[in-house]
Protein 1
Amino acid sequence: MASSATESEFVTLVSGDGFEFVIPRSAACVSGTIRRMLEPSSKFAEALTGRCTLENISGIVLEKVCEYFCYNEKNKNQSNVPDMEIPAELCLELLMAADYLDT
Amino acid sequence: MDNEVPLPPPRRIRHRSPTKTPVASGSSLRKTYQLSRFDDRSSQPSSDPALFSSDDIPASGLENYHAPGPSGSRKRRYRGTWWGEMVKDPKRKRADFKEKRHVDSGVWMGSDESGADSLLPSEDPSMWGEELLNDTSDAATVTMTQGDRSTTHSQPWPQRSGLKKVQEPKEHQAARNIVNECLENGQDSVDLSNCYLKMVPSGLLRPLQHLTKLPAIVEPPVTEDVYSSLQPFLRLFLTGNSLQSVPGELFELGSLKVLSLRYNKLTEIPPAIRKLTLLQEVNLAVNRLECLPWELLWLIKKGDLKHMVVRPNPLMQIHQAEIAQWHSPAGTEPDSPEGTLKLRDYEGPAPEEAWAPIHVATGPVRRFNMEGMPVDAPASASQPAPQESRVPSLREASLLACTRSVFFDQVSDDEMADYPGLILRLLRQAKDVWSGGGRSCSVCHRSFVIARTQWIEWWDCSTYENGLKGPRCPGEKLRPLPFRRFGCSWACVPNAETDQDGQDDMAL
């Protein structure tokens, strides 16, 4: 079980209010915090199960965060990066989340 | 018949109201009343018969169709009534009018007010103002109660609500008066020099973008130089104040042609100066500038900037600065400071490069992390390769969304202090950038808040410093100026810029 989770291509991010987001591992590792959580050598529970619970991030914000992860993954090697739409009411919470996730 | 009319009609009305009544009596009584009432209101003192210039009068036909003039399509003009009567004798006209008064023309000649009257909320015009007053006083009481209620909760609210007007410093009022005067007189040279301004109050410069010149009235003999353009040649002089920063508002004046910030206390010119694409002359002398924004160079190369005064300023000197790469022109020995600091000899007419700015050297690139903190080792092993991508960080993206949102400028510093400390520093930085007019990456032109790379480019612009009076002499010593460039991502570095710039040049 543990070995299969570390090799798994996808990880699950769980928000504080219980929403689950399944995203590619490489995309989630854009965040320094999640990358360290999922480090196989760390033997953290997250690394073993492939499931990160982010207590202080609400579902709405985490959805936008996941959107950013995929946006980052998609445009990583492009020279002309389009802008990502961020609604004004979310930007402060996203800023907090970004600080926490170190992205 | 006449008893529907509340007052005995004036003499002229007499022959009109009976004309109307037969039409109206068929429909309804109410309508009759309205018609006669309109009549009363619209009755004007009798005036001269109107001048008409039309062919399609009701009585026109073959019998009174005059032979057309030489032009053929000329409209007939005559003075008289609309049903085609010519005025021969004022007294005779009166008689004719009385004879014809029973003929129903079928045309309702109600005045313009007839339609508008029914749309107005109040019948009595004297009431209109009062209604408006009531509305505003209602609104005022609402804000008053809001203000009262909030005073119990927090102190700073009443000042922000606008009920209590904060007294403006005298020098700001004086500056506003000068700006208003210029706006009223259509004067496009705005002189705010020596106004003792420590900062430019908000809203002072913004109206200037709508400045229009007034046409000058010149006594007759009219010569050709009387005709001048009404397009304002906007000049703004903020000389001799104590400004410590340039307000972002200044860069909204897209039509600004001449800008003088001489003799202030500026430590930095915001990169937003790039928005002043029509700028022709700029004076930044006697300030505290250590380097210039790279966007100024962009204005020289791609814009209209012809004259730039930047000395004296405590500018960085190339001899003391760290240089990563010397750009020597082809044909000279590479990477030698002496070779590049001298213009190549030329014979005959001055080549283009004797006029154009010359790229002398590039300083080392400083990199910053996502927090905007300097990173010492630029390409150490701890930094993985994906960091080189051009994708903005989530911090950057959300900060940019913050600055673009409407509420951002309404957040006061006091309110900001309540935000969590983690993001406070970033938000403060975003606010500084925003009030300076925003930044855009000098390589990929994306807007950004936190610079990720920064480097100095040394360019010699001596021809532009003396206003393009003459080319450089052969073998002249170059005096390069430091221009600071910002990049929005770690991929935006000098090497990346060369091909981008090349593309830009090709496109232009």
Protein 2
Amino acid sequence: MIIQHPLLGPRDSSEFVYLGDASLIDRPDWQAENAAEAFYDYAYLRANPAGEHRELWFHEGGDRSWLVVTRNTVTHEISKVELARDVARAQGRSK
Amino acid sequence: MHDLVAITALGGSEPRIDTVGTVTCSEVPGVALASVAARLDQEKKAAKALTKLTGSPAPGVGRFDGAPVAAFWTGPDQWIAEAPFESHEDLAEQAKAALGDTASVSEQTDAWTRFDLGGAQVLAVLELLCPLDTRKMTYGDAARTSIHHLGCFVLCRSPEAYSLYGPRSSAGSLHHAIVTAMRSAL
């Protein structure tokens, strides 16, 4: 499987490590009223779609960037690869 | 008084040199290294300040530039500076002086070991060693990859000369991987 790295171009998936659902970027507010429930959801509950799935990959054997990869879990087709920091910044997080 | 003798990463008193066919692998101990990571919101200033250190524009994605102090790209807004140890033993201090508060600098000299691979068929060896498309690399290209499960940097000095940086603590394993690939490919 080849992952089209947004900076480095096509790289072999053996250079990457898979973390899991991209929603892990959205850590809940620990001071919120429903923090306990939100963290339970954040830590344990996952959608398990047969189809398009946004997930986090780490380019460990490369430039060490975190990526958000949109992959079809049925066909393994990768339709989109973004730097996780760009995704977080687009949400108004960090800078 | 202690009478300590310097040894190379492979434990010898002289750098190890192995030749198989047309390719030579030489251990290169005399390099000073320092990592430079731009701080948040200081990325542009850090890139500019890096120029003061290397005398060349901060290298972009997958590139290296500069002499005698060179810098190679290791990740977004991160570089490693390399220079001859003889003349730049205090490279990290020089980097900190040039970059100030725009970047975090850490001494890396003895964290890495360098092997230079040279020869007409060097690409045949690199093909076995790493998943990089080394045939497309040209002078000034630098990339990180996995060699024998070790995170290594590959720098293209010319189509027939490459430098590999790997973790010094695994120098023996990396050297074994390189020489094994040389014997297999040539």
